[in-house]
Fold:
Amino acid sequence: MSVFELMKKRCSVREFTDQPVEEEKLIRILEAARVAPSAANRQPWHFIVLRNQALKEQVSSHWGAKAPVIIVICGDHISSWHRKDGKDHCDIDAAIAVDHMTLMITELELGSCWVCAFNNIRTAEVLDLPEQLEPIALLPLGYPAEFSDPDRHDSQRKPLEDIVSWDGYKKG
Ligand SMILES: Cc1cc2nc3c(=O)[nH]c(=O)nc-3n(C[C@H](O)[C@H](O)[C@H](O)COP(=O)(O)O)c2cc1C
Structure:
């Protein structure tokens, strides 16, 4: 499968079968995050893998807790690179790592969905995180019980002419 085919195959999966996820597959997914680029190569992240049902329910009050696994992506705001104007690149770095993982998850015939609508303060408390570690996203994952049409992007994404300008910004 080409990279573009893999990108189009990836979709948000919110329903999972009960089939457990093999540990080797979890390691492959975490390796995909490990090799992700980050600003100044700071790698300001930590990944917490939850398989324990009680813990999953404490961090994810909705459908996410039904996934066999939830990866909690945490950003380290002390080790992340800050530009001279102070901009913290932690969220950007974390997003790249998540994207690497979602593509690997797809390649492994698993499904997942980004979740940013969660209680990050409660999650930090439940996981007893140090102050500089922020839970940025959850990635519930497992074997998919639902599938999306890989051609849905034709109707569900903005066309290139609406999102690209050449040789300078042109108002729409
Ligand atoms: C940064 C980010 C945060 C998201 N947060 C949530 C979320 O909290 N809950 C949810 O159900 N989906 C969430 N999504 C999934 C998006 O709704 C989904 O990616 C988008 O509708 C496109 O659909 P697709 O992933 O199937 O292509 C999030 C996606 C991104 C990239």
Observations:
- Strands lie at 45-50, 69-76, 111-112, 133-142.
- The mean pLDDT is 95.
